[in-house]
Amino acid sequence: MISLEKVSKTYGSGARAVQALADIDLEVPKGTIHGVIGLSGAGKSTLIRCVNLLERPTAGRVYVDGQELTAMSAADLRQTRHQCGMIFQHFNLLTNRTVYDNVALPLELMRESRQTIRERVTPLLELTGLADKAGQYPAQLSGGQKQRVAIARALASRPKVLLCDEATSALDPQTTASILTLLQEINQQLGLTILLITHEMEVVKSICHRVGLISGGRLVEEADVGDFFTAPATQLGREFLDEFLKLEAPQALVERLLPAPTAQTHPVVRLTFSGDNVATPLISRLAREHGVDVSILQAKVESIQGRTLGLMIAELMGDAARTQDALATLQSFDLQVEVLGHVQRTD
Amino acid sequence: MSSALIDLVWQSTLETLYMVAVAGVISALAGVPLGVLLYVTRPGQILAQPVLNGILGIVTNVGRSIPFIILLVAIIPFTRMIVGSSIGTNAAAVPLTIAAIPFVARLVEGALNEVPPGLVEAAESMGATPMQIIMKVLLPEARGGIVNGLTITIVALVSYSAMAGAVGGGGLGDLGIRYGYNRFNPTVMLITVVVLVVMVQLFQSLGDYLVRKSDHK
To answer: What is the ipTM of this complex?
Structure first.
């Protein structure tokens, strides 16, 4: 439904040129929710603005629903934009229009009749839970309500695609959740294709089917959300995941970690389980079969797109030969084992 | 206070109101579009025309830098062409209007500058034409600022109209100078000043009320 081919964007020219996007290839199939995550300045905003040509790429092609936007006249592009709704971090509602008139705006721009406008706007206000706010002005609404107005407005022209530019970044966690639920409903009920950019893993985890990771203007990784959360392919992906899971070894432990084992140390490992492994009683097996005690320092279980993900940081306590055996056993299972270091044994 | 003096003050008040009204309406009709043009033709704006923008900017600045009393005399041939005479209240209204147009234009440009660029971007994402962006986004969103700018203009016009006496335009300022200053009549001076103060207060209050009514920020 959305397709970017070798899209690049450079600001300025000569020595002061800044490349915001480099050779981006992106395919978003019809009816899916695709997330692009990245740090500030990675090029996320530029990327999503290149889809509806609010920013014109310096190279490459952009297709929406099979039509090449990058080859269109200004007038044709305006027509095609009716098929691409967009919502923004700061909502961008017109302050001097009521909720109803804000939602009606895209239809006014398309010169629809008063009658048609009423027929379209009323159900959208109901869909977004704003039926009782029709006559109010944006200044009277909360952040979440403003974003609902923006969503209703973006849907008014019956688009095939919805672009979300950091749509929940200005909202508190609870409001974020309700907006994400609304986006998911829209995706399911209307079959709308959604491309969203965000810096929050929570957003990707909650509603995305696929995710791309952008860094330095390049898409460095792309995967199904379940795969990305269980086994990110890049270092940056891993950092995002760690930050999201907040599963870092405690500072006091990190300071005691030694890079190489000695006869007087225990290994500290990070285990990442996914799928069925989570249910396997690994820990007790290590104790029973290898005589190794496992001291769990931190652990977490997450459910992502129907898949279960478990993380654990643990110290394997026992003499060197036994802990080596235990490590080998762990590695024979379908899970990720990372030795973070070794600590001086205290027993 | 003699009835002749009351008549004189009343007559002068009407003359001032007339000059301010004519100059206010015409300068708004010309200044608002000029202000919009100054804004939308800026580099990076929806109708970017850097050369046109540069020329408009210079013309506007020239208009604003000429002292009013000089403008009043300098454009006498033009005034005669427009109203057929270079003296009288109508003749004074012409330079007042000419002086107010660039003033209004800069204030309107400033008001448009306060509209968040995100709103224009949102309208563009909906497929709005530049004209639709001006009519449905920029002007309605800048309404409060524009009304405020027009109020400032009206008040400035009341003050400028005091110089209209130089071309026989009449009005309260002229009355104050001729009767109050030249003939050293403190009563007339005081009355004209009081009437002017009341007038400015009323315009400002009305303007503030309209700004509140037109803005939902």
So the answer is: 0.86
